[in-house]
Amino acid sequence: MKKEQKELIIESLAAQLKETPDFYLVNMEGLNAQKTSELRRACFAEDIKLVVVKNTLLKRTLEQVSVEETDLLFPLLEGSTAIMFTRNVNAPAKLIKSFGKKNGKPVLKGALVQECAYIGEDQLEALIHIKSREELIGDIAGLILSPAQRLVSALQSAGSNIAGVVKTLAERE
After folding, report:
1. Which CATH superfamily is domain 3-130 in?
2. pTM for the complete prediction?
């Protein structure tokens, strides 16, 4: 591969990392063409970009971007490596688990999610339970609205109780 081609790949990966800083490193080695195609379709359906890269080019890209914990991922850059870029932080973990159950691969090597490095396949469950930005906003909104909803509910039930008592008293007279 010529130096110009390598530079283009590094620039492309760096641009992708700036756009979607959360990514997963997986091993897809051993998947046949049909299973690889199924995995790519599943990634596309979940809005995950799957890219197979040379380890040296990925290492150079990560050095250029210089995110704090990327150096922890360097030892993982051996053998076959594919990157899953995502905006939804737990979608690749769920996909890896479900697709891996059926096919044995892909296997999680590591991930950089919300500026934290996760190393090893045993981190898959932790990554599945990470909440996305939208889920966190929904949780916060629910917590903020909860006291107000309780107050409105209490007032409505108290109001109907008072109306019932007044109606009963009026009927007795």
Report:
1. Ribosomal protein L10, N-terminal RNA-binding domain (3.30.70.1730)
2. 0.72
